[in-house]
Amino acid sequence: MRVAPFIAVTLVLSAILTRTATAGPALVFDTSNGKVLYAEDIDDHWYPASLTKIMTAYLMFDAIKKGRLKLDQKLLYSKTARRQPPSKIGLPVGGKMSVELALKSLIVKSANDVAVMVGEAISGSVDKFVADMNATAKRLGMTRTRFVNPNGLPAAGQVTTARDLAKLARAVLRDFPEYNHYWSLPSMRIGKIRLRSHNKLLKTFEGADGMKTGFICDSGFNVVATATRNGRKLVAIVLGEESGASRTLRAASLLDYGFQQHAWKTLFNTQTVDNIALDPKPKAVVSVREEVTSWSCSRKKKKKKKTIKKKKSTKKKSTNAKNVSKKTSSAKAAAKKPVTKAAKPKTAPAPAVKPKATAEKSTAATAPPAVTGTVKQPAPKPTPASDGAATVTKTAPLPATALPMALTPNPSR
């Protein structure tokens, strides 16, 4: 019995189905015929994030193919490009970059400012370029996709679906195979600086050869990933993962499942990216910001926690300061108490006895007088080393029990 392959398939399938509560749509298909190997919520709306740049690159390839751009042509860096937030290259306004370097920066670095540079170079303005993006999406059959900007930065109306992204990925690979090597770049260089791809599958998954990752807080971690084994190229689409690691793991699981099930799935399955039944009631786009494990998304929460901790620490400090001040004040008060006179020990009064008069007189005459306070000793004779000191007065040491605690002699010193 061939038990091992069955166990492997079961493990891969369980890895695919074991999803977090925030995981979004998923899809695996064969690029040669579009046959779907696995599909889940592929018509639900989702924020594309930097997967938008796949369409930007598509229009860039088209412009190069038609002669409107050349790989060695220089693109101008505008004020609009400069205003884009990271990820970005950050040239000075008026700076220039070659089309080929811009293409690498768009795919590997996912540079938002470069996407604006490309749009302005191809269509004259960002608004016109976005209109061209939407026209191309319509032509490719991406019926539930709408673009608002060329880089995927947060925008309320910028949405897509896993099915539409599958159509776009398939179109890029089919229409511009001569540029496929750009999608598989693990890194690039700008001068002496090396920039690495966010697509970890290129290093960890056997046969991985593209394409693009995407992330904003509202979308979670997205990826369109391609891999080729034994001449078969598959595409996995994962949307809304909570971390980059879970995105990589889920995409790898989907691709593994696709390769293992390819033979009988393509034999008996007739569903393709184009003809699979369209969901009549897809879910509206939602934000997964609260579930994403990224410092940039939970920064407000962390600030609140820090302020609460600071308040607690200040309260503790104030109470500690009060306690310390009380201790120091009590110590000072104890130090100010006079120590020259010893406290008289309280003794129980003797019982009243009426002695004889003769005995009382004799005891009064013979008993020495009571000594209180200090006792002066006779002054020693001055010596030559005393430097003319006439007299020296010594005070008899008092009992240690009569001293305050702060002034009790320390035997260790």
First-to-last CA distance: 87 Å
Under CATH, the topology is which?
A: Beta-lactamase
Order of strands in the sheet with the most strands?
A: 2-1-9-8-7
* Helix amount: 25-40%
Radius of gyration from CA coordinates: 43 Å
- Biggest sheet character: 5 strands, antiparallel
What is the CATH architecture annotation? 3-Layer(aba) Sandwich
N-to-C SSE string, H for helix and E for strand: HEEHEHEHHHHHEEHEEEHHH
The average pLDDT score comes to 79
Descriptive overview:
This protein has helices at 3-17, 52-65, 79-82, 99-109, 112-123, 126-139, 162-175, 180-183, 201-204, 244-268, 299-336, 357-366; strands at residues 26-30, 36-40, 74-76, 96-98, 187-190, 193-196, 208-216, 220-229, 232-241. With 413 residues, the chain is an alpha+beta fold. It has a single domain (3-302), classed as 3-Layer(aba) Sandwich (Beta-lactamase). The strands form 3 sheets. The protein has a 5-stranded antiparallel sheet, sandwiched between helices. Strands 3-4 form a two-stranded antiparallel ribbon. A hairpin with a 2-residue loop joins strand 5 (187-190) and strand 6. Helix 2 (52-65) runs parallel beside helix 5. The longest helix is centred in the C-terminal third of the chain and has 38 residues, at 299-336. It starts with a helix and ends in a 47-residue tail after the last helix. The model is unreliable at 1-21, 301-308, 338-345 and 353-413 (pLDDT under 50).
Key structural traits:
five-stranded antiparallel β-sheet, Beta-lactamase, two-stranded antiparallel sheet, 13% strand, alpha+beta, 413 residues
